Amino acid sequence: MTAESTVPSPGGQPREYGFSPVSVIPPRGAVGGFGFPAGRRPSVRRASRLPLLAVDGGAALLAGLALAQVQRHPPLVVALLLGVVWLNARAALYRAETVPAMLDELPAVCTRIAVTWCALAALVAALAPAAALSARTLALGCVLQSAVSCAGRGTVHWRRRLALVRRPDTALVIGPAVTAQRVAAAFLRHPQCGVRPVGIVADQPAGGDGLPVLTTGEEVQRALIQNGVRAVLVVQPPGERAPLLRALAGAGCVLWEIDPESPSYGTRPSYERRGGQLAGFACRRIGVAEPRGSVGKRLLDVAVSGTLLLMVSPVLLVCAVVLRLSDGPGVVFRQERIGKGGRPFTLLKFRTHRPVDAHEAATRWSVANEQEMSRFCQFLRRTSLDELLQLWNVLRGDMSLVGPRPERPYFVGKFSQTYPGYAARHRMQTGITGLAQIQGLRGDTSIEDRCRFDNAYIDNWSLWQDICILLRTAASLVRPSGS
């Protein structure tokens, strides 16, 4: 199921800014392309949800335990806590991308508290009329919990804003030089937003004062490393800079789309719920979305890979013995591949080809059915039996059963520069098989087509899609065509 040989895909264009959007730092030295030196990659600062969860949970417990009518029934307190937390989570009150003021959240928080109390009171009245909550208890509970929750949330938000002012995220502004300088100046005048621009990325430099204008990939890379850039402000349609934005997202930056003409007075599309405002500009978070359902996907991987390893262990033993007798020592082939987020891991296979040295193993495409292979090795390649050891990679968590095929660091850097969308494949765990493979994109096929199918798989991921791909892969093994 491995696609280890290729021909150049038609229409492939060099990537804008000329560097790989995946930080790949293999032990043997840096791969050509963009990457942070070891120990210098900035960490993305993410606000923890735990303080707000603790505030809402504590407010629910306090309100429940402070009222005698509720205190006598501990399950009511637990139901109250879970109900409020669930409603707040549904309203995205634990994952705000910007730090809101408490007054902005007050209606949403108080409404959900009131809804939870009313639903709880109705449930108790229906199931146990003798223990029904009185109107006084209901009103006191709503008021007490709302007051404690709002006060606690206000304190958490205040501390977060204070931390942002003291330690702002350095940022680059991307867009036409004049507009980008204007937006950067506004952010510098309002340090309370927690973002401090340090440079402009534009096609052409503009005269006048302001921040330095970066026009080449080398200048962007240098600015990222020297300033520890954590944020990127985009003041033009993101599609115009898609390759560069993918590169910056892969380098660990948080991407914000900024409306430079705010306020819009209804003349522009409204920003989605996950947006907000920074320095008075309407904004929304952009970037590569994490696929949902990772827990279900991991459970499927563990269950299937563990079961298959037990079932095929006799086959693995026979293959290992025959390979040892026919081709000598060195049955297992270990090779560094790039997984989710650009992280390297060691992939396991049965050895079917012996590279001359480590450099050849890292940089040469091995072509299926090479003439120097023994007949048994050709058989392993043709039937994909050489891939069975990767079930151990899946069980360990290095890979998934279904996902984009992993590649070596050298080719990740090379393809990321050449084929748009290649680096975006690393949003999800790499896999033994995938949507591209069941479409016949194995062997000497287009890298560009594989990128498109792999990204389509990630964008439309579902657990059922994984099951369908596994079934179609199993069916294809009946008529193997090689790897």
TrEMBL record:
GO molecular function, one term: phosphotransferase activity, for other substituted phosphate groups
GO CC terms: membrane
Residue stretches making up the Bacterial sugar transferase domain: 297-478
Record EC number: 2.7.8.-
Enzyme class: transferase
Compartment list: Membrane
Major site of localization recorded for this protein: membrane
Taxonomic superkingdom: Bacteria
The entry's keywords: Membrane, Transferase, Transmembrane, Transmembrane helix
Family to which this protein belongs: Belongs to the bacterial sugar transferase family.
UniProt xrefs under PANTHER family: COLANIC BIOSYNTHESIS UDP-GLUCOSE LIPID CARRIER TRANSFERASE, UNDECAPRENYL-PHOSPHATE N-ACETYLGALACTOSAMINYL 1-PHOSPHATE TRANSFERASE-RELATED
Full protein name: Sugar transferase
Lineage of producing organism: Bacteria, Bacillati, Actinomycetota, Actinomycetes, Kitasatosporales
